[in-house]
Amino acid sequence: MNPKLIYVFLFFALVSCNYKNHFPSKKSERILTGNTTVTQQYSNNYGPFETLFTFVTQFESQNPAFDLQAFENEYDQFLNKKSEGFKNIQALPAWVEINGLLLELTGKEKYAQVLEDLSEKGTLTEYIKHFILTKYVDHIYVNLFEPIEISYNHTLGGEVTFRQETSYPESGSVRLHFEMTERRYIELNIRIPEWAEGTSVTVKGVKYFTQPGTYCFIAKKWKQGDLVEIELPIEKYPVRLP
Fold first, then answer.
1. Rounded to an integer, what distance in angstroms lies between the CA atom of residue 217 and that of residue 78?
2. The pLDDT of residue 12 is above 50
3. How many structural domains compose the chain?
4. Given pLDDT bands bounded at 50, 70 and 90, which one contains residue 242?
5. Fewer CB in 10 Å around end: N or C, the chain?
6. How confident is the model over 10-26, as a mean pLDDT?
7. Is the bond into 3 cis (omega within 30 degrees of 0)?
8. Which residues pair with 230 in a beta bridge?
9. Same structural domain for residues 139 and 239?
C-alpha cells in the first residue's frame, strides 16, 4: 500500500476519533420522544430564541462547530437581558427544547427549574412531558413532579416500570413506585428544587440527603413494590409572576 495513503488514512482516523471523544454526549436522554426530529417538531418558529436554537440544530446534526460552553454562556447572556421574548407564546416550544437539551447535556437543576416554571403554561404540556423523566442506561432522573408512568428493559434483562404519583404543586407529596419481576440495580436521581429547603426523601424509613438546587442520589437494588416518598415544603413554593 502506498505510504502516503497510509498517512492520509491515519490522519483522518485520528481526526475522527478526536472529534468523537470531544463532542459532548448526553448525561441522560428524554424517554418520550416521538418520531420527528427536533427541527421538524418546532416548525422553525424560534422567535427571539433563534440564536440559541442554532446550538440545538448544530447538536442534532452533530456539527463540529457545536460548543457546549458557548451554548451555556449565550443562554446566561440571554437571561440577563430579560428578553421580552417570553411573551411570544408561539415561540415558547423552542425555549422548552433549548432548556431540555441543556438539561440532557449538563444534568444541571437550573434547566429543569425553568421547565417547571414553563409547565404552568398548559399549552406546553406536549413538549415538557418529554423531560419529566430522563434516563441513561439504568440511571433515572426525576426532573419534574408530574404524574407519569414509564417502562423499559433493564440492561440485565426484565422490564422495569416506574410510576410517579403527585398533585404537585397543589401538594408537596410525591410517590415513586417500582414494579419489576426481579430485583434490579438502578441509580435514581431526584431533583430538589432550589427553593425546597427541608425536602425529605425516604425509602423504607431511610432518609436520604437532600440539598436544594441539586439531585438527591439513591443507588440500590430495587424490587417489586418499592416506594420512594418525597415531601416538598410546598408552603415555600414561590409565587410565579404572569
1. 31
2. no
3. 2
4. low
5. C
6. 57
7. no
8. 174, 201
9. yes
